[in-house]
Write a structure and sequence with these properties.
FtsL/DivIC; single chain; mainly alpha; transmembrane; rod-shaped; Cell_div_FtsL; Cell division protein FtsL; 117 residues; cell division
Length: 117
Amino acid sequence: MLARQVQPNQQPRTAPQTQKVIRTSRARITVGEKMIALFLATVMLVLSGLIVHNYVSIYSLNKENHEMQAVITNQASINEGLNLQVVEASDPDRLFSIAKENGFELNAENVEVVNKN
């Protein structure tokens, strides 16, 4: 017991407790990555603009095409009516009657037959 009394009561040394600060590290976006993202966003915006422009161009051309088809159909019906009038006007009996009204006579020696080829 003596040995124990000689030594002063020493308390066990404890290391000063430091609180560990836990850092939550965020994944930072670097400047290069920001530039790449900005470039890609710009490219996508330009491409979407081109797609819309092409769609509008195709739509307007399609509209013009339909309008021209309507004009062509209308003109074809007008031409058909005019061709019918030409056929009626070139009837030989009609021509003979008009010639007789104007005092012309049919002379078989002066008649030439013309064939359409």
